[in-house]
Amino acid sequence: QVQLVESGGGLVQAGGSLRLSCAASGRIFSINAMGWYRQAPGKERELVATITRGGGINYADFVKGRFTISRDNAKNRVYLQMNSLKPEDTGVYYCKGRVVVTTTPVSYDYWGQGTQVTVSS
């Protein structure tokens, strides 16, 4: 239904910046919301930021003022601009798309394969 591919991860020093990109393909017209999640080694996956089809944005408290989520509907992409990176930001960052079927209702979540972000101290 929906395919998501993340890119833009890498190695950066503390205080540096990275820009992650998520490219969506397939039945992209059915996506209701997109989000960025991350998972550090030995920890649970956690929400970083979300953006709805209508443009509503929500950030986790630990990234407010540092990260910015945005979208480019024409290119079917969602971005995560990460500034002032900290070693604690290290982890695999995943893109998620949510599809809601209103007739049931039921929702489906689609995940990308993730992109590694490593922040050195």
Q: What would you note in describing this structure?
A:
The structure is a single chain. The chain is mainly beta and 121 residues long. The protein is built from no helices and eleven strands. The strands form two sheets. Strands 2, 4, 5, 6, 9, 10 and 11 form a seven-stranded mixed sheet that branches. A hairpin with a 4-residue loop joins strand 5 and strand 6 (57-59). The relative contact order is 0.31.
Summarize the structure.
It is built from no helices and 11 strands. It has 121 residues and is an all-beta fold.
| Principal-axes shape call | elongated
> Class by helix and strand content?
mainly beta
Radius of gyration: 14 Å
Major sheet attributes: 7 strands, mixed
- E-strand count: 11
- The helix count comes to 0
Beta-strand percent range: over 45%
Q: What is the H/E order?
A: EEEEEEEEEEE
| Straight-line distance between termini | 40 Å
Helix content: under 10%
Average the pLDDT over all residues and give the rounded result. 94
Low-confidence segments, given as residue ranges, are none
Give a quick set of tags describing it.
single chain, 121 residues, mainly beta, 7-stranded mixed sheet, 4-stranded antiparallel sheet, 11 strands, 60% strand, elongated
Q: Could you give the topology of this structure?
A:
Elements: E1 2-7, E2 10-13, E3 18-26, E4 31-39, E5 46-52, E6 57-59, E7 67-72, E8 77-82, E9 91-101, E10 106-111, E11 115-120
Parallel strand pairs: 2-11
Antiparallel strand pairs: 1-3, 3-8, 4-5, 4-9, 5-6, 7-8, 9-10, 9-11
